[in-house]
Records
---
Amino acid sequence: MSDRPPPSAPPLDKDELQRRLAHSAFINFLNLTVVSADPEKGEVVMRAAMRPEFERGRGTGQWHGGPIAAIIDTVGDYALVMQLGRPLPTVNFRVDYLRPAVATALRVTATVRRAGRLVGVVDIDVTDDEGRLVAVGRATYATAK
Amino acid sequence: MSDRPPPSAPPLDKDELQRRLAHSAFINFLNLTVVSADPEKGEVVMRAAMRPEFERGRGTGQWHGGPIAAIIDTVGDYALVMQLGRPLPTVNFRVDYLRPAVATALRVTATVRRAGRLVGVVDIDVTDDEGRLVAVGRATYATAK
Amino acid sequence: MSDRPPPSAPPLDKDELQRRLAHSAFINFLNLTVVSADPEKGEVVMRAAMRPEFERGRGTGQWHGGPIAAIIDTVGDYALVMQLGRPLPTVNFRVDYLRPAVATALRVTATVRRAGRLVGVVDIDVTDDEGRLVAVGRATYATAK
Amino acid sequence: MSDRPPPSAPPLDKDELQRRLAHSAFINFLNLTVVSADPEKGEVVMRAAMRPEFERGRGTGQWHGGPIAAIIDTVGDYALVMQLGRPLPTVNFRVDYLRPAVATALRVTATVRRAGRLVGVVDIDVTDDEGRLVAVGRATYATAK
């Protein structure tokens, strides 16, 4: 777990991250927009808009936890992808749900806590339109080449 | 965390669980079939079929981790719902990905480890058509009324 | 998981936290010093000094992960105890080890992310004497009375 | 995360595991006895006896969660060490506390769920003298050489 993993390429910018999101059928379905990408800080911000398939009860406007978990995993991954320039499989992650998210888009901020030779660890905060924290994630990705 | 939470009703059977899955727009989208439901053992088994929206790379037949996480959260929840007869919000959960799942349906087995007065803990195993373990989940749900 | 849990008393200050640490035989053994306690921010900082029993290899000065995990659980708990003024059992927690901690004291910062009616969630960062992050924790405690 | 990590040596037996536990000052302090070691099943069972330093409240006979977490991490690690024959650092782990453990030794069963090329995943169950489940752990260890 020592030190830095070798980057494969220069860090990716916002537009390149947005392009890569479209490569995956599932991620494309998640409907994410890259808001900002800062390789120095290891921070990516994305916005997720509601879709009818993501609702808990039909017509309630409440996000089901399932898509929130999937979004956390994905945005966390792309914080490391931004720095290392290659796909990185998820090893494991944890999600804590803090408040219902209703009639709101989600703002998702992923911050790299450590990019090691073997794995990287990323924290992900999810807030609603009022800036209230609705969920937090912590995820480990494989960085070994 | 002491002892048993009050059940709201008699345990739910397989058909009733299948009916309740349809109440949520997102769970409906997950496309789950209840295979078996054993309230005595605290065990529910469901089957998840692939959909094009769940693929990692388009046309590869490989499951993205996102829907696997959402399925783990949902099937784990229904193991407790079966026993307690009411909706139970997820407090938090962890997913570990063990192997890629390609060109396969998923068999998901959720087992209640503890149904306490405040929270319940459930283990979830996900296997492919060959019986290989592809992911494991551990989830905590709120059981307080 | 809605809203605020009822505090039992006014928030505890640094000296009162230090006194309460001594009530538990195990926590006493952990050898923690309260550095600061800010109920408004929901942040507690403690310092943990090495003991021979905490070493990985004898005489190496390297912290074993076991005491680091126990310290994370404890300091996280006291961030909520500070706000709510009563003992709060741990529901579950996760620890990620990021770097070896060698020949150093540990500085442990716990921050309340959410104090709900049923559970509270706390993030815990552990750094060494150089300010490097050596481990992170995320923990859920029961706040229900 | 594909396939088997290279073992460094033949699997370790019960006596060799017991000997290795003594190498670490902290693990020695944990006071563990190897009950059984089955490399085929990937299962190790250990017994942990109480010590005064492990008590929550002095003289209550109740285990503090801290030593339980440390024991979970350690026994889980040795399930993989048994199979691979070399030290394996912990990447991360989760502990769920299910019931108080009072006036009892702990029986700890660790089962390897997956030993991959990069990481291994182990489940750990902790029961009291009555066979009741008091805590469960799930841990990831680095298996890369």
Note: The mean pLDDT of chain C is 94.
---
Amino acid sequence: MRTPSFREIAKNFKVIFLDSYGVLKNHKGLIEGVPETIAFLREEGITFRVLTNDASRSQHQQAVVFDQLGLKDLDEEEIITSGMLAKQFLQHKIKEGKIAYLGTENSAEYILQSGLEHIAVRNIDLNNLDDISAFVFLDDEGFDWNTDIDTTVNFLRRKTVPVIVANSDKYYPVSKNDVSVATGGIAKLCESMLNKKFIHFGKPDTQMFNYAFEHINQNGQIFDKEEILMVGDTLSTDILGGNKFGLKTMLVLSGNTRAENADLWINSSGIIPDYICDSILG
Amino acid sequence: MRTPSFREIAKNFKVIFLDSYGVLKNHKGLIEGVPETIAFLREEGITFRVLTNDASRSQHQQAVVFDQLGLKDLDEEEIITSGMLAKQFLQHKIKEGKIAYLGTENSAEYILQSGLEHIAVRNIDLNNLDDISAFVFLDDEGFDWNTDIDTTVNFLRRKTVPVIVANSDKYYPVSKNDVSVATGGIAKLCESMLNKKFIHFGKPDTQMFNYAFEHINQNGQIFDKEEILMVGDTLSTDILGGNKFGLKTMLVLSGNTRAENADLWINSSGIIPDYICDSILG
Amino acid sequence: MRTPSFREIAKNFKVIFLDSYGVLKNHKGLIEGVPETIAFLREEGITFRVLTNDASRSQHQQAVVFDQLGLKDLDEEEIITSGMLAKQFLQHKIKEGKIAYLGTENSAEYILQSGLEHIAVRNIDLNNLDDISAFVFLDDEGFDWNTDIDTTVNFLRRKTVPVIVANSDKYYPVSKNDVSVATGGIAKLCESMLNKKFIHFGKPDTQMFNYAFEHINQNGQIFDKEEILMVGDTLSTDILGGNKFGLKTMLVLSGNTRAENADLWINSSGIIPDYICDSILG
Amino acid sequence: MRTPSFREIAKNFKVIFLDSYGVLKNHKGLIEGVPETIAFLREEGITFRVLTNDASRSQHQQAVVFDQLGLKDLDEEEIITSGMLAKQFLQHKIKEGKIAYLGTENSAEYILQSGLEHIAVRNIDLNNLDDISAFVFLDDEGFDWNTDIDTTVNFLRRKTVPVIVANSDKYYPVSKNDVSVATGGIAKLCESMLNKKFIHFGKPDTQMFNYAFEHINQNGQIFDKEEILMVGDTLSTDILGGNKFGLKTMLVLSGNTRAENADLWINSSGIIPDYICDSILG
């Protein structure tokens, strides 16, 4: 199952889905050699998309960050975030009222830009909730944890509205060893206090993969699932979701899963990638 | 939100997805008046699909059962089961070896008909597992619970293979008051003993809805999610899944959810249908 | 099961265990009439203890607060908190090193007064963890949620030490309608991020009841479990724990559980009190 | 933490609690050398108790089995089972009606011998449940899994009674590699279908340890927790429970936990024994 070279495998596919953190970048910035790999994919005519559980930045802002890190030519259309799924859901299902949110104003502006007003949790008046029609967990920044989590819970105790989690990850890496609580972790705390289930978006849910699948198939070209390889560093999101959606999957050892743990984690989880590779560099 | 007439609402949609048990039939057989409603949908030119968490019968066998119950003209193409998703997954991902299964021979024959050999749990030799490449939970019948659940667990302790659950429901109704453990319940018991997560198919997972969505869009016609209504009797599968996929949803009170509980269950779960209706008869 | 008068029932018991919030006090302060009930218990010669999931204040500080609220003669020995169990555990099991904690300095001082140094999370140096030998979740106040929860998680990713949760409640009431995240909720968030199980103290765990049981039996008197009544307002802590420990239990409707929900909640949870009473006033 | 000799450690304690399976016996019978270790404990004047999650046999029957295996002089008073806790609970809390059970007639006879009638699940008439006052999960044998689990669930859907699980283990070993579903696993399946929490007895719950603690202290002698060592082969039951109850704990590598996994499992679970030893033989 262990394979010497990403490029040898990649050549057998027409499309490659790439996770972002642990595959393209890490806590130090862009992983050295990634621009060359992206160039290789373009030369070979292999379509690719970056699939990331993130709702903090729009596609455009994501592309700008990659550019600043040194990956110059990424098109914003090549980036697909869980925030885009949340945005699509809100457009389909929430047609009136204000949307309350926990997160930064920036994330609120791009996700909630559906003609509806939005209101930060800190501005909610718990005695006047009539016009709030939905609640969205957007980001782990942009609010005061000491007070706004309580307000969120109490709002949701008083009013039953659809609750959307725009990034289901419980934490994200901030350095080689350390992590930080992510939106999905805060949402899970609130779910456990309220004994309710919210609507979560992001890998491993197949909806994320389907969104990307429709995206690559919308310009006349028709790709088959068998022609797509999902590459990621995390068994429980990238590989589980890719497998379930019916894609071939490759685990890379440049992020969450280290070489010495890979076999143990695969055996104990039962989540089996089709390929294992050190990174996408070789 | 409570609406007097299914037909008044239905007229606003081009497509209707219908759950089977609790909507079309119940423990006594076909719900009286359902053939007339199906005829109404055909007259109005409304496309429909039956979406059911079931892997015990093929589409053709399902249609035959509906025919025997008195719903004569259902086309087998109009029925979509979670077993079909499991079958699709196996075709994409399992290319060699034998597929072991827990369930009836009938379900094994139609789901596993991919050129690969299949083997019932009772025939597994725990000392010779080399050629088994996947395991499928198919049905709650066709095996001896006293012995074959143990064999399943011990097989999965010895060999790491993809494990598929072809129907994620934990139980199904067998009479007005009573239920029976379903495939998904047995799978959950095994997951809890092994501390592993299997790959589950069926509502509320959006993959089920996406499969139906692709199905109605494959003959040239292009339907939009906004033009589709999902009708079901269960908040946690039909309505949750339909909502998340971005469809309008209608809860009917002819099955699992009774009129006197509807508001309480909606409030305590936070799963909100767009419409509530007594049944699809009116 | 519904009973007209607490006092009629109470007379049949030699010992009464009382939950604090929802039984003796609520968000407005002491529940009117409680001092008379306590006086009644003393007159009848009925031994009692207050059992509370709380690690924010010592027994003495708890008694002072009750005094300020108007319950004048409560002896600090009559109050038993989950913090006392955590303290006992630390004394038995942690014999060296520093104890790190999340909570107020006050709670740290009384719980960790075992001769060992303690260190607040904000003072932890993640690069120098050698001398830290245990971690305690003490209180939901006394730290900055925006930073110290992350530090807690990263400490526990780097070093494996016993982790104690001194109050397992996920939230506590702050007004008639509103709640606030409690220590147990934060601990649960960290458990879910780390995929580990901490050591929790407090109701419904029987250890809390056993501690109280030993407490009343240590002065020569020998009480039997059959002679003890547990009174509380919460099915999932007071009644579940009391039942499991083998005590008779009474649900009062002056707190978390309201009269209109009592039967429904009992049926849906399967947690059955021996008696139900409006309050301890009658 | 790794220690060369059980006996060297044991000498520092006045009482030793021993798990049964994986410590005294394994799938092949009594572990060779165990009679000598038991003789050593007696010579040294060290009190001991065997603590086992088992409700299939009475103390007397357990002692007979040990005798047959070759451990001749075990007193039945030296064996403490989770079934004894369930029995105590039933005596305290269930005073009338019939007790329904899932398990063997033998286990029903000794656990339910409280003057009340008992009734096997297969004999329950779902249309006449008036006189059934409690339900007990006793054993994984003595019933037909294909039918009696369904009857159990449907009984518990129709009537709210206290439900007791006399052995909380989800599985038990039957050979070197294989396990069998235990009572606790079946109970968990039913809990998940009913969305209810039953009352579970057995390690790691501290009630089991407290029962043993009271047992050794009832004959005039007074032992302190600091004088007791808990020895077991399973982190999540023996060591977690012993730690929480405030005992010193020793993990032995002669059962569930193998030498090559011990450190990894300790680090990933956060459950830390005070000592680790190959077995109790040295």
Note: The longest strand of chain A covers residues 47-52.
---
Amino acid sequence: MSESDDIRELLERRAAALRAGDAERLVADYLPDVVAFTLAPPLAHTAPEVLDPEAKRAWLASFDSAVDFEVRDLRISVDGDLAFCHSLNRMSAVPRGRQEPFTLWYRSTVCLRRVDGVWRVAHEHDSTPFHMDGSFSAALDLTP
Amino acid sequence: MSESDDIRELLERRAAALRAGDAERLVADYLPDVVAFTLAPPLAHTAPEVLDPEAKRAWLASFDSAVDFEVRDLRISVDGDLAFCHSLNRMSAVPRGRQEPFTLWYRSTVCLRRVDGVWRVAHEHDSTPFHMDGSFSAALDLTP
């Protein structure tokens, strides 16, 4: 199995954890010094917050449905003990108290380091662009 | 000189090019297969658009001042022929026709590959988060 397959498996395991609402699994791959740039403020998230499954659990509990999740245009680069990946991801879920699911396409970059033979997430960057039409609203309506 | 110093130098050269308004220099480090996730839509930018200095020139021409640029919390990881970096960046400039500069802090991830002994940019991801208060406005008011 190539190293690229190892990374692909890790990403698929993380996608499965998101679909299953498994908060522990979602934080298990992070390195202690992880820096995460997420969809929500502040600019950067670090330990202990990022490593705490409670925050993920609270976020998952804000939906009345399971999270549907799709990854497109994934590209993986690996050399030595470093890897980086980027993709366009779709997330759909029904917010608590609503009838209809929202659907959001966003950009995702995941950077990994192999530590003691195990690939771990060192950095994660999820985002949407924003409209430059003077509204400065997040561009939540884009599709690949 | 360590490889991390090589990367730091490349990033500093790019910062200097931005401050100097040097559009050619800004696109010179990109690999032909670069995928850029930028502050503005669409979700992803690829060649030939990203490699065209004309687009950068038009963007730089939308300011009445030079671009002031600062990089904070830069972390660089290098192994073999891969590297990834992330930082919080501040950009300030006076939009054309305005009196006052705007200032924007955003997150930046730069992923590099060494090709024929030269470090090149394979992937770039710049973004702001957005407010989850129902306004869905880009969070342009954040500071590190």
Note: Residues 24 and 53 of chain A are 5 Å apart (CA to CA).
